[in-house]
Automatic annotation (TrEMBL):
<dbReference type="InterPro" id="IPR016039">
    <property type="entry name" value="Thiolase-like"/>
</dbReference>
<dbReference type="InterPro" id="IPR011554">
    <property type="entry name" value="HMG_CoA_synthase_prok"/>
</dbReference>
<feature type="domain" description="Hydroxymethylglutaryl-coenzyme A synthase N-terminal">
    <location>
        <begin position="4"/>
        <end position="166"/>
    </location>
</feature>
<dbReference type="InterPro" id="IPR013528">
    <property type="entry name" value="HMG_CoA_synth_N"/>
</dbReference>
<comment type="similarity">
    <text>Belongs to the thiolase-like superfamily. HMG-CoA synthase family.</text>
</comment>
<dbReference type="InterPro" id="IPR013746">
    <property type="entry name" value="HMG_CoA_synt_C_dom"/>
</dbReference>
<dbReference type="Pfam" id="PF01154">
    <property type="entry name" value="HMG_CoA_synt_N"/>
</dbReference>
<keyword id="KW-0808">Transferase</keyword>
<dbReference type="Pfam" id="PF08540">
    <property type="entry name" value="HMG_CoA_synt_C"/>
</dbReference>
<protein>
    <submittedName>
        <fullName>Hydroxymethylglutaryl-CoA synthase</fullName>
    </submittedName>
</protein>
<feature type="domain" description="Hydroxymethylglutaryl-coenzyme A synthase C-terminal">
    <location>
        <begin position="266"/>
        <end position="355"/>
    </location>
</feature>
<feature type="domain" description="Hydroxymethylglutaryl-coenzyme A synthase C-terminal">
    <location>
        <begin position="176"/>
        <end position="250"/>
    </location>
</feature>
Amino acid sequence: MTVTVGIDQMGFYTPHLYLDMTALAQARGDDPAKYHVGIGQDKQAVIPPTQDVVTMAANAAAQILTPADQKTIKMVLFGTESGVDNSKATAVYLAHLLDLPADTRAIEIKQACYGATAGLQFAADYVRSHPTAKVLVIGADIARYGLRTAGEVTQGGGAVAMLVTANPRILALDPVSSYHTADVMDFWRPLGRSEALVDGKYSTNVYLDFFRTVWTDYQAQTHRTIADFAAFAFHIPFTKMGRKALRQILPEATPDQQTALTAAFEASQLDNRNVGNLYTGSLYLSLLSLLRHGNLQPGDRIGCYSYGSGAEGEFYSGRLQPDYRAGFNDAAVTALLAKRRAVSVAEYEELFQQQLDLTGTDVQLPVGTDPAPYYLAGRQHQQRQYRHRSEA
């Protein structure tokens, strides 16, 4: 008997600070339209030193997990390229913060922005053979290119948490996917660097080429066409990138279908426009934005394109379930985004420099200014000090 497996719940977290792209454009001597239209970004999450990928993942997961869920989680798969240790997995820190059972596998997955998708597919395979188990999949990152760099406008950060189960409430994954890997130097972060190196135009071209490759292969495997899809969600480090990918395949659709797919894309990029780049979480914030803002119906098939520089791409699909809106807390996400505080460019630059450095020196952080339930209190003896407000 085939077990239906997929995404049962989704949670999202980004810190309480953001930078308006008009302010950044003016400070850098650029036309704001270059950022709002040319790149497709309106706001960018600003990450205080009291937040890292572990705390953001915990805050996202806490949005969805019940005590009953915690007891049945058998695996944590943490996709990130912003890990906090070269040996110990972010998933281990997270499992402890969430008080998950000791008989839980906890693994970190790294392949640029693709890591969370690998985690989702590994989780689905596990649940197919262990139908009573639940797997927590995380996509969390802090996108850093440096002040006054070409990539500065595509920074951001946050975390998406997904609970993968049998008989999911949100999205039942189709069993077929298509993936493609090549050794490409379009984006990388050498050891010892906190900011990435990127060849932006080249990376965009590779992203588009990979999308065409996996889309064509997916069609050959499934014999499906664009007419079988109600919407597509893309990895969008900046929203204009996903728009370019969609435009590659829109000519395959009828005029009415093109209108519907374009409207669905607009819904899928709304939240990303106001958060920025999540690296591994980018596709999944796009999917959540589509669920929150799109005109979708149960049974609709959604296509998802994941891309991680270096490079690996995957296209997969799933069917929207009847009770999909019960799988995420729409009001909580709306409130989270609405309650953020705008920072000036000067504040943003100061906070950018306050991230924990690589020296390993002891430090205490200004935790009183961070309203999040989970936060980073500092570092002692080269060990990060994670806290929950109920324990403070």
